[in-house]
Amino acid sequence: MSSDKKVRVRFAPSPTGGLHLGGVRTALFNYLFAKHHNGEFILRIEDTDQTRFVPGAEEYIMECLAWCGLNPDESPINPGSFGPYRQSERKPSYRKFAEQLVNDGHAYYAFDTAEELDEQRKIHPNFRYAHDNRMNLRNSLSLGQEETNRLLAEGAPHTIRIKMPENEIVAFDDMIRGRVSFETSLVDDKVLLKADGMPTYHLAVVVDDRAMEISHIFRGEEWLPSAPVHILLWDYLGWKEEMPNWAHLPLILKPDGNGKLSKRDGDRLGFPVYAMNWNDPKTGDLTTGFRERGFLPEAFVNMLALLGWNDGTEQEIFDMNELVQKFSVDRISKAGAKFDFEKAKWYNQEWIKRAPNAELLPEVKAVLEKHGLNTAEYTDVFIESILDLVKERLTYIEDFWEQASFFFQKPEKYDVDAVKPKWTDEKSTFFNEVADLFADQSTWESASLEPLFKNKIAESGMKMGELMMPFRIMLVGGKFGPDVFKITEVLGKEEVIERIKTAVPQFQN
Ligand code: GLU
């Protein structure tokens, strides 16, 4: 590839279902590479396999990308000058290349029916259509020119298969792995054009990557075995000089490192594997996604970027701009990256801490509404001041309810076991006096409430710990929550006095 070529990369998913986090990482690395080099990031929908097409999957993929902030420069809904961006719509452009390959002796017509191939599979359990048995099967190589012409003229259904050479070594330089080579005899004669006239992935990917002037390809490691077929096609079609650079990304592994992370691992271990909720229209099954589980897109993207890449330092928190700036292919590791859900949660915590309140507010309100509150009754300033206090404690925005519901409603019950056994009349008196003392205050802020309360304890002769915990439980219901004087401040004078007065009788024996 010439170095002055414009960087153009593509994310090329097949619209067959929910988007696995590995797929999003592939999209992300493509995006980061493109943006780092001021290039273009293209979305191409690879929908040539009509049997696997799932309605809604394409829209879902686009929504996932938008959620992650990976907006394509060209896509089916935002076409550039290289369209169409759905392979099914490019159908007429493939046959001529398949036929060119036949004419040049690099491919052949195969007339075997599905039944005949099934029969072969029954007889030979390891059946593959390849150099060592193709002469025993029904194709233009075994049948000869005349019979082939007759069958074609008669309109006999046929596929076109690549004629893999025997005993050749095909090699390329992978941007991550370095030199990778393949023994062609081990690769079967892949179908290039199907009987329905649609190309297979192998033909379409090569034709389209060239037509769309793709300069670099980042794709999952699972596509590495297909590389020799693609390299030969670039060569046989006379496009060798234009071949893009390839990078095969390391797998994302199960938490224990044993094999590729699958959707089933998520179901089994209780974490999402898809980017967003996926409703399978065929089975009606719903699979939870990171988005609906409560992940911020910034956290999800940050976590994915670090699955197989780092910038060479200990830094773990990166926003998209910084990722674009720092991304480099030589820091992508060859080894598979273990998925760690606890780490994913940590990223979310970190990003919630960093998120501006205004950004979190709509989601926080949604949580409150979900619990039956009418958020119109509260000012944004009030909700944001609470967010400031509990933000550090949230793994998910949903935790806001657990951490902060007491700001919006009085405790329904108290952790009486923590106070009742040691309760005394003296304590009741103390709190009744605190309520009176509070009532006299004209300003209401934690900085003055704290010394006021602590002086009162000192005067009483009781111990700090004996009174601080009950005070917290009166306001919150339990032994949790942020600084008790901050809580006092946010709750407001009337509310605090009322909560003290409601709680005292319940703590008495
Ligand atoms: N359509 C392939 C997929 O679903 C794309 C592979 C590639 O990027 O070449 O992953």
Task: Explain what the structure shows.
The chain is mainly alpha-helical. Helix content is 44%, strand content 10%. The protein has helices at 21-36, 57-68, 95-103, 114-123, 140-143, 145-153, 201-211, 227-236, 263-269, 290-293, 297-305, 320-326, 341-354, 357-370, 380-390, 399-408, 425-439, 446-460, 464-476, 484-491, 493-507; strands at residues 8-11, 40-43, 107-110, 159-162, 169-174, 178-183, 191-193, 216-220, 245-249, 252-253, 278-279, 286-287, 337-338. A 3-stranded antiparallel sheet has the order 3-4-7. Strands 1-2 form a two-stranded parallel sheet. Strands 5-6 form a two-stranded antiparallel sheet. The longest helix is centred in the N-terminal third of the chain and has 16 residues, at 21-36. The radius of gyration is 32 Å and the shape is elongated. The termini are far apart. The mean pLDDT is 96. Residues 12-14, 46, 201, 205, 219, 223 line the site of glutamic acid.
Describe the SSE topology.
Layout: E1 8-11, H1 21-36, E2 40-43, H2 57-68, H3 95-103, E3 107-110, H4 114-123, H5 140-143, H6 145-153, E4 159-162, E5 169-174, E6 178-183, E7 191-193, H7 201-211, E8 216-220, H8 227-236, E9 245-249, E10 252-253, H9 263-269, E11 278-279, E12 286-287, H10 290-293, H11 297-305, H12 320-326, E13 337-338, H13 341-354, H14 357-370, H15 380-390, H16 399-408, H17 425-439, H18 446-460, H19 464-476, H20 484-491, H21 493-507
Parallel strand pairs: 1-2, 8-9, 10-13
Antiparallel strand pairs: 3-4, 4-7, 5-6, 11-12
The chain binds glutamic acid (GLU).
Residues 12-14, 46, 201, 205, 219, 223 line the site of glutamic acid (GLU).
